[in-house]
What does this fold into?
Amino acid sequence: ERLARAVYDEVMAPVGRQRFVLHPEFRIDGDGDTYMLEYAFRNGGGLNPGRIQDTTGVDVYRYAALATLGAPGDYRVDSGRFGGSGYQMIFADRPGTFLGIEGLDDGSDDVEIIPEKERGTEIRTPHMDVLAYVIARGASAEVVEARLDDVVRGAEVIVLTRAKVPVSELRVESESGDT
It folds into this structure.
């Protein structure tokens, strides 16, 4: 909130804008120091607006359009109206062929798993290609966080990787130990 206020005071107020869409990205380190990574006058990127709507029912694009057009109204969302909700993305840790996710079990009516990639999809950019979203809802942020942790804790992403190995380095052992 402090960062959004600073952007408003320094950038938007001088040009007479009272309402705007802001996409801030920042990092808070272990000492509590805040580092601005990006701020842009746009919605969150990628599939985030869709996941926010899936999770909370809030149509981010609608709110952004109304605020940008200067339509009257209060566009703040009452988070208490939705209870707690959140999502976690699941990624592969290496390139290869995506074979599936083992141990991913929702086990609750308040958890939904949305697959994004099909078995056989080539993963070219680890930690960037979203394989699945896990959405959880609960009475508070703490409950949601615990549910997300429970669901993904035992999950293992299975990726088939290919390695080029010269034939001269291959070694085959029989059951008797002969090579």
